[in-house]
Write a structure and sequence with these properties.
It contains 6 helices and 6 strands. With about 210 residues, the protein is α+β, with helices and mostly antiparallel strands. Strands 1-2 form a two-stranded antiparallel ribbon. The longest helix is centred in the N-terminal third of the chain and has 27 residues. It is globular, with a radius of gyration of 19 Å. The N terminus is likely disordered.
Amino acid sequence: MKWYYHNNKKNRKKLKKKKLINKKLCKKYPWLIPRDWRGKKYKDYDYSYHTLDDVKGWWKCFGEMMCEELLVALKKVHHVNDFHILEYKEKYGEMVLITTYFNEEITRIISKYELISGHVCIFCGKPDVAQTTRVWIEPLCEKCWGRFPYVDNKTYEEDTDYENRMIPDTLRWRTWSNGVVEHSMDISDTVQKIRSRYAQHLKKSEG
């Protein structure tokens, strides 16, 4: 009974801290507040989670970076307060983010992080990881991959698209308005920043 009480107290303290952090995040990035289909905030919302909280690894790796870029883009067009996230999920090993408002710049930001997400561990947030090649495709680092039981006795390299694990430095897309046109954008600065942040995180954890 004593252990149970201590554990509960610890959990309550952890939840309180998380609520305070989420409250600050939601104040800075209003679209993190969960809303219903009419765009109204839930009456019982208590900041224990936010709209991008479902996939922990991606939020940990680049969530705030993405939000900061979106904030800059939204301020230019005065849409900070009426920009909402309709859906945030994983599909075919990449992030899918659907919003109420978008323009060319916002689309590029979201597309960039959707591409990056396919090479970031969905559980721990480690960058430059491979995607599993089984029925359920998802990016996993070797440590998180090892948490699941396997019956085929394959190694991490054999069970994943290991050769394509590194985050690409270029975002590519096509447009069809004037015929098929190939476009590309250098995203190496963002990729390097993600790697640098992860290296600092490892150094802090080890120190």
